[in-house]
Predict the 3D structure of the following.
Amino acid sequence: MTDKPFALIVDDEWRLARNLVRFVERQGYEARAVASVTEANSAITHRRPDLALVDLKLPDFTGIELCRMLDKRFPGLPMLVMSARIDQEDEAALRDVGVTRFLTKPFGLEELGSMLSTMTVPDGAANDIADCDCHDRARPPARPSALRTTTTRKSPRVVLYSHDTMGLGHMRRNILIARTLAESELRASVLLVSGAREIGRFELPKGIDCLVLPSYEKSTQGNYQSRHLDMVTQDLVNLRAHTINASVSAFNPDVMVADNVPRGALNELDNLLSALNARGHTRCVLGLRDVLDEPQTTREEWAKRKNLNAIQWHYDEVWVYGDPSIYNLCDAYSFGDDFDRKVRFTGYLDARRRATPRSTEIVPPTTEDHLPQTGEPYNLCLVGGGQDGFALAEAFASAHQPTGTIGLLITGPFMQQEQIEILHRIAGQRDDLQILGFVQEPTRLLSNARRVVAMGGYNTVNEVLAFERPTLIVPRVRPRLEQIVRAERLSALGYVDMLHPEALTPSAVTDWLHADQLPPPERPIDLGGLDRLVDFVKRLTSEGHHHATA
């Protein structure tokens, strides 16, 4: 390491960057050029910059975001922004984060030299960032000590974010995780950030509260739009992003877990992630299901959305809620070594813990109404939230139940009313079928079910695996293949039976309900995810606050 001040040059025009390095080094600096914000993150992990030359337009994130983060992490750092065009709005945003020098491309080296001569190198130039091993899976390199929080808390604060555009799975999974953290030895305070007001139907124990965002929904073309408010989509994005940023920043969590979407729906987490990363207190984690989608489709989608860049730049760890011996996400998607180093497999989340009411839990008075009144054995049909479950629900309702059993069908809160009316007409013509709407805790029914017919969403499959019920999975195949990928793998291993939706008929369901069942596999599935999550949070909050690295 030399005693020269260190200049960081961030520009994806390699010829210009090469010439800038040569010129800046002649001015007495040690210089390094990188082509993206992600590479800049890696560079400043090893050494504190004393000068930054930043292009406004970069391939992964904007120069404005990089300057904002540099200013928060290294207050007073001299920064110069280069661009072919800097409009008034961008210039104002850059000045707000400490940039006072601007160069319009193309510029001459004499002009650059003159500007550099007016930029003061701060005291402490050429100091190293704390020694670290950037490839240590369990201990990312520490942030500068000046950025560590001085607040002493009796219990950690955790944010669980989910954009919630479809179904109940995100909500039930995050509520289960929140309960576990709040009721563990950590006694964590958990803020749920949810994009669906239906989360208000769930009882939340002490230690957990909820921020409900104005909702998105997906159009028939697969595009996000406002679900309830008369707003254009971008205005809703701005509203949600501002609400999330202000609320989470004020809560100042020790750990934030984003569910499934690294940058949030329509990139609504970008500003928050930048702020949290720059502030240096919060450990950011991405939580993923065991299966995302068909691998090639997932890789293409993630590349388009720059998800891997976001994970590399903003996230400390990636928690996969699955058993790698069942489905190894790292092997299936081949996202690369940088991604794999951050992955921790938790095991599946044991849904049996949801089936036992806590002593302080408020149990709705209608709960007992969901239980069969005759005491007969029952077969249970689960269609998630119900918005795309009518075909399965109708086939189950029309199937013949084995003698001495009845069928229970839970439609969920999102099934269309006219579809529910059709199901009730079918049930009205028979005495062995009961239709239920929203059931806050279906695991209490699932635990005693004779057999289960269900769709293949993560939460539903997680539940039937935990209770070891004989299960027929009829997976969704549009718009994603996630459910059929999961169902085919579990079926091949003998944990469930699978029926392709194109083969779904009442007679096919009838045949399965009457067929003999094979014994389950001897190897148990790893259901230790909840206990490991407590350990993961404990580790993240006890080892200090660190900087996400590539």
Remarks:
- The domain at 6-116 is CATH 3.40.50.2300 (Rossmann fold).
